């Protein structure tokens, strides 16, 4: 039987700094829960709302795979590799920090907040050359099916590449529809994060911003109780 860990939306870490309203699925900054340090190689899942005209000043990262998904508004990115990009809904950004990179992230709109999900995944190789990529994904390509956003760097597919044996999918499931996922190895688990809606994942009912970690399974079935927007991570458990 699958091992299922439920993470309720209202039990996430929370910090409201005025300019930033942040919810943390895992221990981060001033929030620490020894039961929620990471799920396998998934280390961070932050649900951030950045106020208009505000943002994260230039700061460093190293040896982490950083994936950013904007849900609402726009996020301006600038980094020490020379990239100056704006991320909008429907786009995904990947930054392999490797030996080290510095970047800033800002919401330049003065009247509209930006809601983003930022995730960190431990890399399988340390001290690689930093790299950056960004891609737009068509919403129509995830209706009642899995849309691959991210995949391992040595895979020849449409996913943005990271230095880890991990995948990220997004699906827009209409009521009554299901998707099934099969782990790439017995050592992999799934972390299901409900962006919106209501769905059953491995027998666990999930509502908006709830999540479930599912491991020790050879199949994950997700069924929508109502139209749902779902993000799914497949990561090594150790």
Descriptive notes:
- With 238 residues, this protein is an all-beta fold.
- It has strands spanning 3-7, 13-16, 20-24, 42-50, 55-61, 65-72, 75-79, 84-87, 91-96, 101-106, 114-121, 131-136, 147-152, 160-162, 167-173, 178-181, 188-201, 204-206, 211-215, 220-236.
- Strands 1, 13, 14, 15, 16, 17, 18, 19 and 20 form a nine-stranded mixed sheet that branches. A seven-stranded antiparallel sheet has the order 2-3-4-11-6-9-12, with no helix packed on it. The chain has a four-stranded antiparallel sheet with strand order 5-10-7-8, with no helix packed on it.
- The model has no long low-confidence stretch (mean pLDDT 97).
Give keywords:
0% helix; Jelly Rolls; mainly beta; 7-stranded antiparallel β-sheet; 238 residues
How would you summarize the topology of this molecule?
Elements: E1 3-7, E2 13-16, E3 20-24, E4 42-50, E5 55-61, E6 65-72, E7 75-79, E8 84-87, E9 91-96, E10 101-106, E11 114-121, E12 131-136, E13 147-152, E14 160-162, E15 167-173, E16 178-181, E17 188-201, E18 204-206, E19 211-215, E20 220-236
Any idea of the CATH class?
A: Mainly Beta
Secondary-structure element order, N to C? EEEEEEEEEEEEEEEEEEEE
Task: Give the helix tally.
Answer: 0
How is the main sheet built?
9 strands, mixed
Over all CA atoms, what is the radius of gyration?
Answer: 17 Å
The total count of strands amounts to 20
Average of the residue pLDDT scores: 97
Number of domains: 1
Structural class label = mainly beta
Distance between the termini: 19 Å
CATH topology: Jelly Rolls
**Gross geometry:** globular
Query: Helix content range of the residues, please?
Result: under 10%
Residue fraction in strands:
over 45%
* CATH architecture group name: Sandwich
CATH homologous group name: Jelly Rolls
Poorly predicted spans? none
């Amino acid at each position: 039987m699958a091992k299922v860990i439920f993470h309720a939306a209202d039990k996430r870490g929370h910090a409201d700094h005025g300019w930033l309203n942040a919810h943390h699925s895992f221990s981060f900054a001033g929030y620490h829960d020894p039961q929620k340090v990471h799920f396998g190689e998934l280390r961070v899942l932050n649900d951030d709302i950045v106020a208009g005209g505000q943002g994260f000043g230039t700061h460093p990262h190293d040896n982490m795979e950083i994936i950013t998904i904007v849900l609402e508004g726009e996020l301006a990115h600038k980094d020490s590799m020379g990239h100056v990009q704006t991320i909008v809904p429907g786009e995904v950004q990947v930054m392999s920090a490797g030996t080290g990179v510095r970047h800033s992230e800002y919401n330049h709109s003065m009247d509209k907040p930006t809601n983003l999900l930022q995730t960190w995944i431990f890399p399988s190789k340390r001290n690689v050359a930093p790299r950056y990529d960004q891609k737009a994904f068509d919403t129509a390509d995830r209706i009642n099916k899995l849309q691959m956003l991210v995949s391992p760097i040595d895979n020849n597919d449409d996913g943005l590449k990271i230095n880890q044996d991990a995948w990220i999918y997004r699906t827009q499931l209409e009521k009554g529809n299901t998707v099934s996922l099969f782990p790439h190895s017995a050592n992999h688990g799934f972390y299901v994060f409900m962006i919106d809606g209501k769905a059953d994942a491995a027998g666990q009912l999930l509502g908006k911003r709830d999540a479930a970690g599912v491991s020790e399974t050879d199949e994950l079935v997700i069924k929508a109780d109502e139209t749902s927007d779902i993000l799914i991570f497949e990561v090594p458990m150790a």
